[in-house]
Predict the 3D structure of the following.
Amino acid sequence: MKGFQIHAPSIQIELKMRRLSHGSEQLPEWCKDLIKLASWRDSCYGQNPLEPTSQDQFFPLFIAFSHLSIDEAGEWKALRKSAEILKISVIAFGKDRIWVYRSGFQN
């Protein structure tokens, strides 16, 4: 966790920039970041991450910026599936479209 602790309530935003030369090879790294955000959220909530108390509020958001188009059938589908499983909201800015998945993890 890079030497810091998370205290609720908080918003954790993970920003990623995909450069022209990296193409779709960054997708696995993006999915690792989703897992990291989910683990931070779960550590904040303790034993029942899906039933947070009114005092514990942690909102993870993953944002990716790409100078290339984001492939709907491949990249976006994989990123969204990971986000759905982990219950992390995602915004992906591609060259020609903005993709949004809003997690159902609410309190």
Notes: The first helix runs from residue 27 to 45.
